């Protein structure tokens, strides 16, 4: 196995583990809230059993909170399920805008913990390319992870997709503190390995506060 494949494999496992752990932790938070409200319902039940009046509104409020958390858990499970299926096919035709929005959703909890807002801007029409879904998601995450460290006071990362003559590009903008960064190790070997596997190119513009990934219309054509 080549050095490049070793890097991609290790990076992919780290990516898969980080995203899974983050979203499963969020499910634990949901279960804790449901458990807390279930305890309240039990208390209300005991009060009613003892003859103490309980306003219907209080019961409805707790019930609505539980329903809301169940819906939230369902959304998280669907996100994790979709992510796990990213490795089903090594090469696939995808909607790039949809993938970008999905990555913003998958990374939402991590971004929230870092006080950063992710704002995907979807194109009016679909931008489709043939690529490796998992490798692309991994590359987008690495760029997001870096971008969240250089947002500056704005604490916002904008993600945009644009069709090009020979494929498409992904832009990460509003990186206000990029130019102040003294570390010039981005992109590192992980990003470069994934870029090579995708036939993609990355342009970092610290002064403009943006990162651009240029992707071919088909990964097969770039091979």
Describe the structure in your own words.
With 223 residues, this protein is α+β, with helices and mostly antiparallel strands. It has two domains: 3-86, Single alpha-helices involved in coiled-coils or other helix-helix interfaces, CATH 1.20.5; 90-222, 2-Layer Sandwich (Heat Shock Protein 90), CATH 3.30.565. 55% of the residues lie in helices and 18% in strands. The chain has seven helices and seven strands, in the order H-H-E-H-H-E-E-H-E-E-H-E-E-H. The protein has helices at 3-49, 56-84, 96-106, 108-113, 133-147, 189-198, 219-222, and strands at 92-95, 117-121, 128-131, 156-164, 167-173, 201-205, 210-216. Strands 2-4-5-7-6 form a five-stranded mixed beta sheet. Strands 1-3 form a two-stranded antiparallel ribbon. The longest helix has 47 residues, at 3-49. The protein starts with a helix and ends with a helix. The model has no long low-confidence stretch (mean pLDDT 91).
What's this, in brief?
With 223 residues, this protein is of the alpha+beta class. The chain is built from 7 helices and 7 strands.
How many strand segments?
7
The CATH class of the largest domain, by name, is Alpha Beta
Q: H/E element string? A: HHEHHEEHEEHEEH
How many angstroms does the end-to-end distance come to? 18 Å
- How many domains in all? 2
Helix content: 40-55%
